[in-house]
Amino acid sequence: MTAAHDQQQTHRYVMHYPEHAPQRDDPHYRAFEAYRRHHREGAQCYVGERAGRDSCAGALELHHSVLEFATANAADPAALHRDFPEIAEDATVDEIADWLESSPGEFRWLCAFHHRGHGGAHTASHADWTAQLYVPGLIT
User: Fold this and answer.
1) How many other CB atoms are there within 10 angstroms of residue 61's CB atom?
2) pLDDT tens digit string along 50-75?
3) pLDDT, tens digit, 9 for 90 and up, residues 73-101
4) Strands 60-64 vs 107-111: parallel, antiparallel or unpaired
């Protein structure tokens, strides 16, 4: 049996973002803001709801849980269609952006720590971030 232990993790790689306008300049951003306004009341951190709010820190932020805005211009519609049949296999960039900014399944409320902090969806590896949903205190 391996004894309980702490292990520091470092992940480094290069992201190749496609050209994109700032999100606030996107015509679909209004839908994102409308969702945020209408669902903010009573919202709770997705991670905190599962593993306890002891590790939550900072204000709630709305996270794109499937596809980040900055990557939408390069998303393969046929690949998206496999998991999200409501997106046509030949969907246009505009149709993907519309889905991205208006689909309730695309949004997840996260506290600042679980969104952008070192335990965040944008920082921790997917395996570690997902494990912390069920293992309280996994990432500190």
Assistant:
1) 17
2) 999 999 999 999 999 888 888 888 99
3) 899 999 999 999 999 999 999 899 889 88
4) antiparallel
- Count CB-CB contacts under 10 A for residue 51: 20
| Residue in 124, 100, 108 with CA at minimum distance from that of residue 20 | 100
State the Cα–Cα distance between residues 13 and 8, nearest whole angstrom: 17
Dihedral sign (CA 19, 11, 13, 75): negative
CB 133 within 8 A of CB 51: yes
Give the whole-angstrom CA distance, residue 130 versus residue 121.
Answer: 9
Residues found in the chain: 140
pTM above 0.85, yes or no: no
Q: d(Cα 22, Cα 10) in Å, to the nearest integer? A: 29
- Can you tell me whether residue 138 is helix, strand or coil? coil
DSSP H helices in the chain: 29-39, 46-51, 77-83, 93-102, 112-115, 126-131
